[in-house]
Amino acid sequence: MFYQTKELSGKECYQLLNSLVTPRPIAWVSSLSADGVVNLAPHSYFTVVCTYPPMIGFSAGGPKDTPRNIQATKEFVVNVVTEELTERMNLTAVEFPPEVSELEEVGLTAEPSRFVRVPRVKESPMHMECRLVDIHEYGPRPAYFIIGEVLAFHIDPQVTRNGKVDPALLKAVGRMGGAYYTRTTDYFELPRVSYEEYQQHHKHKRS
Ligand SMILES: Cc1cc2nc3c(=O)[nH]c(=O)nc-3n(C[C@H](O)[C@H](O)[C@H](O)COP(=O)(O)O)c2cc1C
User: Fold this and answer.
1) Where do the domains of the chain lie?
2) Measuring from atom 26 of ligand 1, which residue has the nearest CA?
3) CB atoms within 10 A of CB 95
4) Which residues contact 116 (CB under 8 A, 6 or more apart)?
5) Its Gene Ontology molecular function terms (predicted)?
6) Is the pLDDT of residue 207 over 60?
7) Residues 190-200 pLDDT 10s
């Protein structure tokens, strides 16, 4: 199959991208409106932008509460979605009116942050407190690519082993195409290969 983008509708591009860029981690983003209403919404167009200073980015197709809130208050928190939280995460994607706080509505607990006014989701084992760095707008809708600097990381010791986050304990979920999700507990190790190791063990022999 081959498609030239100009022959595709917006929905078709969306479906192809969601099936190709996979699996995607989910940033469960809490934010505060200018009136102080806590908002919570999942975003799987999510990635690391820079490791030091730690910066992350995600894309929010507008017009939605998350980009509006972050534009107004310049802060947000990224909460990690685990298997146990998946159903409630999905409910926070319901289009509630702006005055409704998804967090309370779906039975989650707001926990104060240290450096931002936006609360964290207590039930999630890992949080990143973020300060807005940049918002880039793309397309007619537009989509907002939001970049934040991570001011602090919160990690529940219950998801760590020997001081490190253990994926078997974290049980994060990822997003696939359509309505599919993936678990992250079926994983394997593949160490990086140095150039010396490559030459010694991996280089294809040419006759
Ligand atoms: C798993 C999942 C991932 C999602 N990822 C995105 C995303 O990356 N960008 C986006 O704009 N919407 C995404 N959505 C849809 C938003 O969460 C949904 O439109 C939500 O109502 C927006 O809430 P808000 O108006 O409170 O910001 C996703 C939904 C789900 C369930």
Assistant:
1) 7-202
2) 65
3) 10
4) 75, 76, 77, 129, 130, 131, 151
5) FMN binding; oxidoreductase activity, acting on the CH-NH group of donors, NAD or NADP as acceptor
6) no
7) 999 999 999 99
CA of residue 41 to ligand 1 center, whole Å: 6
- Using the mean position of ligand 1's atoms as its centre, give its distance from the Cα of residue 42 in Å: 5
Q: Tokens 């167009």 label which residue?
A: 45
pLDDT band at 100 (very low <50, low <70, confident <90, very high): confident
- What is the b/e burial string over 54-86, where b = at least 16 CB atoms within 10 angstroms of the residue's CB? bbbbbbbbeeebbbbbbeebebbbbbbbbeebb
- 206 pLDDT above the threshold of 80: no
Calculate how far, in angstroms, residue 197's C-alpha sits from the geometric centre of ligand 1: 43
Fold of the CATH domain 7-202:
Pnp Oxidase; Chain A (2.30.110)
